[in-house]
Specification:
47% helix, Rossmann fold, globular, alpha/beta, binds 5-O-phosphono-beta-D-ribofuranose, 5-stranded parallel sheet, 5 strands
């Protein structure tokens, strides 16, 4: 068992509200598939700004290696965290009732140069989890092997679906 898959949280999944969890849980599930330790919490940029800054400032020192941040609407959480942590931040635009998540997407993706956020698709929390696993896999041979195997299986499943249609 490596440092990354030993249970200790190395990925921080945070979101602006517990109402984001139905979207964000897919990131947690992806990490669980690869045995990557994570923590999940609500850290609102607007409703608890001091705690949000504290979370970002302390994340690397606590042993986190990647942050996945999801928010909807005026989705400032990923960008604000990226401004106070040296860790890679993956942003998940959470779709809300209005605007189909375009507000969330644009709030997260249009970062100024110098403060990167790796933004996934609207509602794309699963890919956020997989991207975090890929980042961690660059430092972990077992995780890299598991990611390669995952990709092989993904291809096999797609081919099987095509074969079923052709049959
Ligand atoms: C955002 O406001 C949150 O990320 C959430 O997507 C949205 C709505 O929050 P609630 O009013 O449901 O708590 O900051």
């Amino acid at each position: 068992m490596s440092e990354l898959t030993g249970g200790r949280p190395v990925v921080g999944i945070v979101m602006g509200s517990d109402s984001d969890w139905p979207t964000m849980r897919a990131a947690a599930e992806a990490l669980e598939e690869f045995g990557v330790g994570y923590e999940a919490d609500v850290v609102s940029a607007h409703r608890m700004p001091k705690e949000m800054i504290e979370y970002g400032e302390q994340a690397a020192g606590r042993g986190l290696k990647v942050i996945i941040a999801g928010a909807g609407g005026a989705a400032h959480l990923p960008g604000m965290l990226a401004s106070v942590t040296p860790l890679p931040v993956i942003g998940v635009p959470v779709p809300l009732k209005y605007l189909d998540g375009m507000d969330s997407l644009l709030s997260i993706v249009q970062m100024p140069a110098g403060v990167p956020v790796a933004t996934v698709s609207v509602g794309g929390a699963r890919n956020a989890g997989l991207l975090a696993a890929r980042i961690l896999a660059t430092q972990d041979a077992d995780l890299m092997a598991a990611m390669r195997e995952f990709q092989v299986q993904l291809g096999a499943q797609a081919k099987a679906k095509g074969a079923a249609l052709r049959a």
